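Thread: quick sanity check before group meeting

JM: Hey all, I'm pulling together slides for Thursday and realized we never actually wrote out the predicted structure for the chain we discussed last week. Dropping the sequence here so it's in one place. If anyone has concerns about the input, flag it before I start.
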Amino acid sequence: MYFLRKCVILHVKIRNMKKIIVILTGIIMLFSSCASEFNHVYRSNDYAFKYEYAKQLFATKKFSQAIVLLEEVVQLKKGSDEAEECLFMLGMAQYNYGDYESAAATFRKYHQSYPHGIFAEQASFYVGQSLYESTPEPRLDQSPTVGAINAYQQFIDYFPESKRRPEAQARLFELQDKLVIKEYLSAELYYNLGGYFGNCSNGGSNYEACIITAQNALKNYPYSRQREDFALLIMKSKFELAENSAEEKRMDRYRDAEDECYGFLNEYPESQNARLAEEYIKKCKKVIKD
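JM (edit): ok, ran it. Output follows.
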């Protein structure tokens, strides 16, 4: 009985393995068939069929293969009735595949070639979307962010009545916030470096760089949610600059720091840093009085 049971178990295992082998073989044959079919289409000179096959690939979300065919077909469709659709589809395939840089370039090309085309509004919107998807974190260079902001603004200017306008505006404000964060991180870095690089007693310090960076940010983004944070950095930097100044500049800088503290309290009377501003004022008054 034991031997018989072992034989039955072994038979079942062999049968299951055969099923797995059959399934795997079917999958391999399917992929081989698909690859063979794609290669056949790719080598074909029937560009009408090639374009229809590319549309089928796009519809089934096989974007990488669709891009290969569309990049070839789009060159041959210039001047035809299908050229506009082909170019827009290429941009969407690139976007969905995650090649945002190429997608942005393709959508720009579409908008330049067909400013009044049937996909003009979508193409203009997706220039911004493509650039948005490739924007880096705030600590890195924000050139792509500026490009995305400009693209969204251009879309709003061209299509002010578009249903996508609220989405474009929301993304535009989000990207502007990223630029603000970039400026804040730069100003904060200068403040944290303090007197490590540059001789405060001889002028030209990181505190001065912090003040200039923060003041420029307040001018460029007057309605930023981080306005108080910038104001705090300016106040703290001016006080530290006075503390580390050469004798001939100390009094003027303490007066400047004192004025900054009063300005901070006037604008943010309920701030959590109001007490710090008051402490700075006392210290400034003591130095000025003495």
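AS: nice. Residues 2-43 form the longest helix (42 residues). The radius of gyration is 32 Å.
JM: adding both to the slides.
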